[in-house]
Amino acid sequence: MKKLVAAIAFASLSSISFAGTQSLTTSIDQVYATEEERFGGCMVKTGTLVDRNLNCKRAYVSLDCAGVVDGNSKSEGQRKMDVATLAMLTGGSVNMLVTDQARVNGYCTVERIRLLNTGSSS
Fold first, then answer.
1. CA 40 to chain centre
2. How far apart are CA 61 and CA 35, in angstroms?
3. pLDDT digits (tens, 9 = 90+) for 6-29
4. Partners of 107 in the beta sheet?
5. Which of 24, 61, 86, 99 has the greatest number of CB atoms lying within 10 Å of its CB?
6. Which residues have CB under 8 Å from 1's CB, separation 6+?
């Protein structure tokens, strides 16, 4: 009986997945606007791949323009998309906080995105 209880406890612990986050400084290679149901309505292809330790597909991240992720609205997702589009068009870099806690169609989502100043100061 003790072995059965121990086996059940071990099995339940091994099925727990731990959410991870990554701070990713990267360029934006491509911007995609999709239908709302797929990929959260918008996603980007990053110049740097998402960390292998995150439990999601690596080449793209969702900005969730559809507001499907709990705690994110459509307008928040669209603002993230605006920053990503600006970075892509200007050749600038962004810093993103990417998480696998909330995924859309297997892709990690961006909690925060910040456009970095790539201009030289005089």
1. 11
2. 15
3. 544 444 444 344 569 999 999 999
4. 57, 104
5. 61
6. none
Integer Cα distance of 106 and 49 in angstroms: 15
Q: Which two tokens stand for residue 9?
A: 């406890």
Give the dihedral of Cα atoms 66, 23, 53, 43; nearest 10 deg: 30
Bridge partner residues of 21 (DSSP): 99
Report the predicted TM-score, pTM, of the whole model to 2 decimal places.
0.79
End-to-end CA distance of the chain: 74
DSSP string, 24-75: EEEEEEEEEE--TTSGGGEEEEESSPPPTTSSSEEEEEE--TT--STT--HH
Contact 106, 61 (CB under 8 A): no
Question: Would you kindly state where each structural domain of the chain is located, as residue ranges?
Answer: 21-115
What is d(CA 48, CA 51) in angstroms, rounded to the nearest whole number?
Answer: 9
CA 58 to chain centre: 9
User: Using CA atoms, how far apart are residues 14 and 31, in angstroms rounded to an integer?
Assistant: 37
